[in-house]
Amino acid sequence: MREKLKEIFLKSNHQFISGEELSQQMQISRTAIWKQIEELKKEGYQFEAVRKKGYRLLNEPDDISSEIIQRECHTKIFGSNVVYFKSIDSTQTKAHELARQGAKHGTIVIANEQTNGKGRLGRSWFSNEGKGIWMSILLRPSFSYNEAPQITLFASIILTNALRSLYGIDIRIKWPNDLYFEKKKIAGILTEMHGEQDQIHYLIIGIGLNTHKTKYPLELKQKAGSLEEFINQNPRRIEILCKFLEQFEKKYELFHQKGFAPFFDEYNQLLLKKGTPIVVTQSTSFIYGQIYGVDENGYLIVKKENGEMIKVVSGDITI
Ligand code: BTN
User: Fold this and answer.
1) Roughly how many angstroms between the first and final C-alpha of the chain, as a whole number?
2) Mean local confidence (pLDDT), 24-44
């Protein structure tokens, strides 16, 4: 019964619904409606109640605890073991620790806040309480070390598509795995692995997605953005998470069998637009050029200022 009431409110677009209308739709008394609303409040739903107008849903709960992930997301592997922290230094560090202790393939470490989030290239990752999805996924794949970097590209496709389908906005991938909306970075992915040349013991994909508006430190202000700034609604982390995990699980087997090749067209379509001027930083040198696309290995093809095409295997690009 409570599920039906939730559905009515979620469809109401934050408009008032009178007690009478609710009781008619639900086929229960107005007192019973009031009781159900009190129960929903305990789950974290917030309402405004005004005499003669009825009830209006203000906010839905946006918990991402393990119970909620396991209840809401329809996955078998990625979500079968969820380790949640209200606050932790880094889910990535924790995932490494759990992996060393033998945690299973598909384990997810997720936190509401990170106090020492790690970014790529030794940078830190700003992860304020409740303002994003800070999650690390543990994989135990059977592909080789060389193929592993491409999983980051795969994960960025899945995340981009999840956000595009939920919110209909033109999110793009900045090679290799940053998600941008216009000039703002809203998500980053950090993949780390442990193993030998021909055998990976485990691999950890760390995903940081800024969902809610927050005050960024000065050095990030120009560059970082949150989903909420660009959509006309309150992003729901659980909804994003489930969409991501479900799609990840659905397509992972294909990636595992065939690698990046089946996904490379899709990646190119989501890549920052062809022709975007970029600077490639490679240890001590800079290359100026334009984005051309990626090849089947996931390497970036850059058209240099003199027209020459080059392949970038690793490094960082600046737009
Ligand atoms: C980047 O630099 O763009 C990658 C950022 C990755 C951040 C995520 S948040 C969850 C996981 N835990 C960490 O400490 N880092 C990754």
Assistant:
1) 51
2) 92
pLDDT-above-90 percentage for the chain: 70
* 248 token code pair: 């990840």
CA-to-CA separations, 249 to 108, 156, 235, 244, in angstroms, rounded: 13, 14, 22, 9
pLDDT at 31: 94
Nearest CA owner, ligand 1 atom 5: 119
Which of 16-20, 68-72, 119-123 is modeled with the greatest confidence?
Answer: 16-20
Listed in sequence order, the residues at least 6 apart from 109 whose beta carbon sits closer than 8 Å to its beta carbon are: 83, 85, 91, 92, 94, 95, 98, 135, 136, 138
Determine whether the shortest distance from the Cβ of 120 to ligand 1 is under 6 A: yes
90 lines ligand 1 (CB under 6 A): yes
Short-list 165, 205, 159, 166, CA closest to 185: 159
Q: Is the CB of 123 under 6 A from ligand 1?
A: yes
Distance 238 CA to ligand 1 centre (A): 18
Cα angle at 44 between 40 and 46, to 5 degrees? 75
pLDDT-derived band at 274, boundaries 50, 70, 90: confident
| CA distance linking residue 42 with residue 101, whole number of Å | 37
Q: Which amino acid is at 78?
A: F
Q: pLDDT tens across 247-265, in order?
A: 999 999 999 999 999 999 9
R_g (Cα) of the chain, nearest Å: 22
| Gap from CA of 14 to ligand 1 centroid (Å) | 34
Q: Residues 16-31: what's their mean pLDDT?
A: 95
